[in-house]
Write a structure and sequence with these properties.
The structure is a homodimer of 457-residue chains.
Chain A (H helix, E strand, L loop, with lengths): L1 E8 L18 E10 L2 E6 L9 E8 L2 E6 L17 H14 L2 H17 L2 E8 L15 H13 L2 E8 L21 H9 L9 E7 L7 H13 L4 E5 L3 H11 L3 H7 L7 E5 L5 H9 L3 E4 L1 H6 L7 H7 L3 E3 L9 H16 L7 H8 L1 H6 L16 E4 L14 H8 L5 E6 L2 E5 L2 E2 L5 H13 L1
Parallel strand pairs in A: 1-4, 5-6, 6-7, 7-8, 8-9, 9-10, 10-11, 11-12
Antiparallel strand pairs in A: 1-2, 2-3, 4-13, 13-14, 14-15, 15-16
């Protein structure tokens, strides 16, 4: 295929493994000819006129975006968990109620709708942090990976790639048994978790990767952390972990082990360049040094961190210390990586009372190049020959972006665009969204409605 | 006209002068018959089938929203002021550059486009905090109110109501002369300001009110505050003032006068139920008591306060103390009162680390009823007989709102809707937006583009 982008952001596509902190540019190139063969880019030439057979992409074209932290089933909570004054307990009660209702069929339909919403928002790859493994009472399904396979198939049908971060979740807190709906999450031991995950093989075309996750130091005891990390090491797989989202976790970890959660993960060999710490909100300076020094990635989920009153994590300090940054919509209060990207900067402004922590290019790199790398797809999230042919075109003709100038398009899109401005999406060479309509899922709102109704009524 | 709303939020319409803190409900009524005559509602009946001649409004219908704090010309800065690392100085330099370029004709075209964007976002009334009074060197135009009149006309042509908050701006800081572009802002003395404003009479139909504003205690010396307050008192007009947006203002005020800005305003008789303090970010407890005790309103502008790194104001404490709350998009980094409304709650969560400070109904009341009251339109912002016939219908058929249930529609819209979801807007009985298209300004993005280009190139 031959595409011709009116403007394209190639900032992260000019070198390998830039890393967010490396001063990625905000530059946007006009008139970019983009050729694809199969699922890859084969030629990218800025500043040339459109050949007659090219598909025109009016607006600003970006690489595909990666939603590096997703709990698909939380999409059912949008709006509902703000009822009344919407306390944390409102949220948790409803989250567990939904978790208890899902089975492989309903989760397949549910995730397909959510991933289709992601595609419409310009997301070409999702990192699904998956722990709804077993039946409601904890009994494994006939196929013990039925739930994970349902998610992989859902992504395929929604037209996006997935890294299934199969999550080890063993305890309901440090030293506490699983309770109620948590029984679904548990494999008993990390070894049993590893056996199950090792049997999981993505079927069909290569749209899926299997990664590992440690739910948190609350849910995986110290002596089991190493086994999960070893599995990820052995499979050269991404390893994600919820880290220090709430001060209560830090406190419990200190009391039980005399270590911070970051230190505990380091002890278990769980930090490193394939690991991503999600949230990383309440850290000591020494934690930041440990994460940055080991090149452990960080995934910020600012709309969730706002929603759950977690606080504002030290994203800038982490990146300065050496951690690449990715972004996640997590509980999907909204699915809009532009909102996540700008929130990283805006919340840092609230925290520090100064502007100017990140360039638009750095934030776009987090949403694209570094996000894909965090999910084990280093050859995606950049518009350059050899990379996965993902394209996301943002229309500049809405009232939100009207008046943007070529010199500031990256800034305009990061700071003012909405997921509603995404017009055209190509994932691994396949056109998934055209003119704002999903080509594989005919009516995404109806699919969401049906899926949510099925698990909430 | 007869409308039939699939759902309508009537929460703030069931009593007079509720005030945000009074526990306004989140309830949404189905099948609401709404009749208008001229510019007013004449009949509102929930729970009845649609008569055949009714205009159907599928989705959730809200009262008109009030954008209680606007600097229309800042719309030119969207995106641009994030260039590079986007420091405060990037912002201020560009803001003054745009301020220097406008004249009555270009400002009319500019504001018309911005107000049309507001209409598309469901805003039926704007509070324009206006201080671009004179020619670039400070010489008054032949008609010294030419700029204000241009704004009033712009609102009329864009189909929304306006409260022109004509702003007294005399000094470039406490004890400092005006400098450079600031010369446009100055009237010399509050008495000269009052003479000019007294000559300002809205022409044409009753879509405009004249209010007063004290730019800030930085720009209006102590001895001149009283004259502005007296003018507002004499005309029973709204009086707005930027208050304690930055700690530097508090410090300068203490050093010069030995008073907080709030105390200085109280000394000048500038607080009270017709006054609105904008931002009110950095306050002492005694300031909060003074504001609440005098029923002085507060206008929160959270997307601006994020953008300018101002910090998070004590909105909840202010309302608890007695201040009604309104919302403003201020510099228009985005024009989306849903985003402003949820940001009040979400930023309070970041500040306190707890959820659940505001109900969706309280936040909607701030955007509608209390916003209009803050602009001197107490008979607007509520769907009830006698009130201005303003209707804003939010479509529930986007991926953002799909899966919302009737029991949680107010929450879903406040926490997940975007201005892009506004489908239908009626202002004072006139249909201004239908199916997302502005009926009076044919191509709003093109109008924005032309207006912004004219003052930035």
């Amino acid at each position: 295929m031959i595409y011709h982008a009116e403007y394209a952001w190639l900032g992260a596509g000019t070198g390998a493994g830039t890393g967010v902190g490396a001063g990625v540019g905000d530059e946007v190139a006009p008139d970019v000819l983009i050729e694809t063969t199969g699922d890859r880019f084969t030629r990218v030439v800025p500043g040339v006129p459109a050949p007659p057979d090219a598909v025109r992409l009016p607006g600003l074209t970006l690489p595909g975006m990666a939603d590096a932290h997703s709990h698909a089933f939380h999409r059912a909570l949008r709006g509902r968990v703000q009822a009344g004054r919407g306390t944390f307990w409102t949220w948790r009660e409803q989250m567990y109620a939904v978790a208890a209702r899902l089975d492989p069929d309903s989760y397949h339909a549910f995730a397909k709708a959510v991933y289709a919403e992601m595609a419409l928002a310009g997301i070409s790859c999702v990192g699904e942090f998956h722990y709804l493994h077993h039946g409601p009472d904890g009994t494994p399904y006939g196929d013990p990976n039925a739930m994970g396979e349902a998610l992989i198939e859902a992504a395929r049908e929604a037209g996006i790639r997935i890294t299934l971060l199969d999550t080890c979740y063993l305890t309901g807190g440090i030293g506490k048994d699983l309770e109620g709906p948590q029984h679904r999450f548990g494999d008993g031991t990390a070894a049993a978790w590893a056996d199950r995950v090792s049997a999981l093989r993505p079927a069909g075309p290569a749209h899926a990767l299997i990664g590992a996750a440690i739910h948190s130091v609350r849910a995986v005891p110290r002596e089991q952390i190493q086994a999960v990390a070893a599995w990820a090491e052995r499979h050269a797989a991404p390893l994600h972990v919820h880290l220090s989202e709430q001060p209560a976790e830090n406190l419990a970890c200190q009391e039980a082990y005399g270590r911070t959660p970051t230190e505990l993960l380091a002890d278990g060999g769980a930090l490193g360049a394939r690991t991503v710490a999600v949230h990383a909100t309440h850290l000591r300076d020494t934690d930041i040094e440990l994460l940055g020094g080991t090149r452990t990635g960080v995934c910020m989920c600012p709309t969730t961190e706002r929603d759950l009153a977690d606080g504002i994590g030290p994203a800038r300090d982490l990146v300065a210390a050496g951690s690449p940054m990715s972004l996640g919509s997590d509980q999907h209060a909204v699915i809009d990586l532009f909102e996540e990207a700008r929130a990283v900067e805006l919340d840092e402004r609230l925290r520090t009372r100064h502007r100017g922590h990140w360039t638009a290019g750095e934030l776009l790199a987090a949403a694209t190049t570094d996000g894909h790398a965090a999910l084990g797809w280093p050859e995606a999230g950049r518009i350059e020959p050899g990379a996965h042919a993902d394209l996301v075109t943002v229309g500049l003709d809405s009232v939100r972006l009207a008046g943007s100038t070529p010199g500031h398009l990256a800034e305009s899109v990061v700071f003012a665009a909405s997921a509603a401005d995404v017009r055209h999406v190509v994932v691994s060479g396949r056109e998934v969204v055209r003119d704002g309509h999903h080509r594989l899922v005919d009516d995404v709102p109806a699919a969401l409605f049906a899926a949510i109704t099925a698990v909430t009524q």
